[in-house]
Write a structure and sequence with these properties.
This protein has four helices and four strands. The protein has a four-stranded mixed β-sheet.
Length: 246
């Protein structure tokens, strides 16, 4: 294998590691944003439950006040009934009392409904409040972990970029330009091994003469089909692990 091909393989390995780290670094803020968005949604639901509970209590208080006023009206009407001079007046007072009592029963029924709703709402608020506190702790823990992971990834990236620079400077400019071009065109897969007389990347059969030239390893060679940089590793001898020239 040509020495520059060795360098290209090393360069590709460094770039692939860097790309994976960059992807992870980019994904961490998105992950944090997603869990924070979920937290905000849960907070809004809790606020909605609290608002519903407050509205329930407000309505109950108003109805209780109305019932109290109705009782006062009935008491006053009963007093007035005692002074009725005619049957018509007496029946009018009784009719009004009956009407107010009917409305009071409706109000009392509504209070019972509100009490049932309040119990459910109060339970929801308490559960959601407790769950939200735990979720906030989890979010803060994940954010701290993400910051630590990002710092570690960035440190690795800095080291990889330093090593990449040391490798890249050893390559001829033409080879480095070709490498960068293939990297962009082939989604980060620049190098392909010749196996079974084919390019391992595009699976196109190599010409016999091309394959012979590649085996000699005296130049950097490119696949005639996909354009990737080719390399050939002789098969390993089963007994002593040495490469067998073919």
């Amino acid at each position: 294998m040509h020495p520059d091909t060795h360098l290209v393989i090393e360069l590709q390995s460094l770039d692939q590691r860097a790309a994976a780290l960059e992807k992870e670094v980019a994904a961490l803020p998105k992950h944090i944003a997603a869990i924070e968005k979920t937290l905000e949604a849960h907070l809004r639901r809790l606020e909605a439950d609290k608002a519903a509970l407050a509205a329930n209590q407000k309505e109950r208080k108003k109805i209780e006040g109305d019932i109290q006023m109705n009782e006062q009206k009935i008491s006053k009407l009963r007093d007035q009934m005692l002074g009725a001079k005619t049957n018509e007046q007496y029946r009018a007072f009784q009719h009004e009392i009956d009407y107010i009592e009917k409305e009071t029963r409706k109000a009392e029924d509504r209070i019972l409904e509100l009490m049932g709703e309040s119990e459910s709402l109060d339970g929801n608020v308490k559960k959601a409040d407790a769950a939200l506190k735990e979720e906030k702790k989890q979010v803060e823990s994940e954010k701290a972990s993400a910051r630590e992971r990002t710092a570690a990834d960035q440190a690795q990236l800095d080291q990889i970029r330093l090593e990449r620079g040391e490798v890249a400077v050893k390559l001829p400019r033409a080879t480095l330009v070709a490498y960068d071009r293939i990297w962009k065109k082939r989604n980060g897969v620049v190098v392909a091994e010749a196996t079974g007389g084919r390019c391992s990347a595009c699976q196109i059969t190599l010409r016999p003469q091309y394959f012979q030239d590649l085996r000699r390893g005296d130049q950097v060679m490119f696949c005639e089909s996909c354009g990737r940089i080719m390399y050939y590793n002789p098969p390993v001898h089963a007994e002593d692990g040495t490469r067998v020239a073919m």
